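Intended use. Records such as the GNAT family N-acetyltransferase entry shown here are meant for training and evaluating sequence-to-structure methods. They are not intended to support clinical decisions.
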Amino acid sequence: MEIEVSSVMHLMYVSEIQQEMYDSAQRRGTGIAKRSIEYLSKKILEGNAVIASENGEWVGFCYIETWSHGQFVANSGLIVSPKFRERGAATLIKERVFQLSREKYPNAKIFGLTTGLAVMKINSDLGYKPVIYSELTQDEEFWNGCKNCVNYEILMKKERKNCLCTAMLFVPEKNQNKEAAVSQPEIKLNNDKESSISI
Ligand SMILES: CC(C)(COP(=O)(O)OP(=O)(O)OC[C@H]1O[C@@H](n2cnc3c(N)ncnc32)[C@H](O)[C@@H]1OP(=O)(O)O)[C@@H](O)C(=O)NCCC(=O)NCCS
């Protein structure tokens, strides 16, 4: 399976991605923010999406979007083709999307909204924590994206404080020590008090 940052060669998958997003939401009976072909194509062309494929066949997709003038990055629209599910594709896509978000926007907080257990597991392994919606971007345009969701009325009744989706947030400064521990060599003292470095 290939996991790649999107480019023009992936445009051929856009209709299939949009259709599967819609069909999966219908099957699950859950809400989803609707994305147009134009919007998804733009994400693909800008290199703001990650695509998984196998032998030229589309496997999965996810994209990033910045909010609040770059203070936040959302990872959205994760979808895996039904015949490729439960083989770790979503995990690999989300890892790459997370890496892409950190590379492009190192100081931004990264978040996602989900009703799915699989995504909660993946996010939690990447260091995201569940939060209430006031911790997320308050950018009107982001929340306007929920207008097409079947649960929009619930969101409004709750004054945008919560809804059926779980919000998960990764805060870079809170994870700096963990990231540093992974990238820095461990320094150990020997018994004879000489210092040595083990990597
Ligand atoms: C949710 C979805 C993206 C998962 O894709 P996937 O490639 O099958 O996921 P993975 O194989 O990487 O599995 C990741 C983890 O979730 C678990 N998982 C996968 N599907 C699951 C499901 N339907 N219910 C509960 N757990 C699930 C896996 O066992 C794995 O857990 P583990 O790491 O403890 O073994 C895919 O089912 C899908 O596209 N669903 C429809 C769209 C959707 O729900 N998108 C998410 C919107 S936020």
